[in-house]
């Protein structure tokens, strides 16, 4: 699987594969091929999400150091 595929492109391809498999009239060999491709796309999406989550765990402070990112709850200061 090409790592240069965007998350959105991978999700669109995955949705297309799921649609084909849900139709139910796919020959077994082709269904297995679709399933394998779908698993690759699923892993690619998962890896990309994990990468983004790691990026969101840190924000750049003014002095250039990284610190953990914590969401502020509304109503708290």
Automatic annotation (TrEMBL):
Q: Where in the cell is it found?
A: Cytoplasm
The protein's UniProt keywords, in alphabetical order, are: Cytoplasm, Exonuclease, Hydrolase, Nuclease
GO MF entry, a single one = exodeoxyribonuclease VII activity
- SUPFAM superfamilies, per the entry: XseB-like
Which catalytic reaction applies to this protein?
A: Exonucleolytic cleavage in either 5'- to 3'- or 3'- to 5'-direction to yield nucleoside 5'-phosphates
Q: What is its EC number?
A: 3.1.11.6
| InterPro entries per record | Exonuc_VII_S (IPR003761), Exonuc_VII_ssu_sf (IPR037004)
Q: Which Pfam family, giving just one, matches this sequence?
A: Exonuc_VII_S
Q: What domain of life?
A: Bacteria
The entry's function note states: Bidirectionally degrades single-stranded DNA into large acid-insoluble oligonucleotides, which are then degraded further into small acid-soluble oligonucleotides.
Q: How would you summarize the oligomeric state and partners of this protein?
A: Heterooligomer composed of large and small subunits.
The entry's family comment says: Belongs to the XseB family.
Q: What is this protein called?
A: Exodeoxyribonuclease 7 small subunit
State the organism's lineage: Bacteria, Bacillati, Bacillota, Bacilli, Bacillales
Q: Which gene encodes it?
A: xseB
């Amino acid at each position: 699987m090409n790592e240069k595929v965007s998350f959105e492109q991978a999700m669109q391809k995955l949705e297309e594969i799921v649609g084909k498999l849900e139709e139910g009239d796919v020959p077994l060999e082709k269904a297995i091929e679709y399933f394998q491709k779908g698993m690759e796309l699923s892993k690619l999406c998962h890896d990309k999400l994990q990468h983004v989550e790691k990026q969101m765990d840190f924000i750049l402070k003014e002095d250039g150091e990284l610190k953990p990112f914590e969401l502020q709850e509304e109503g708290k200061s």
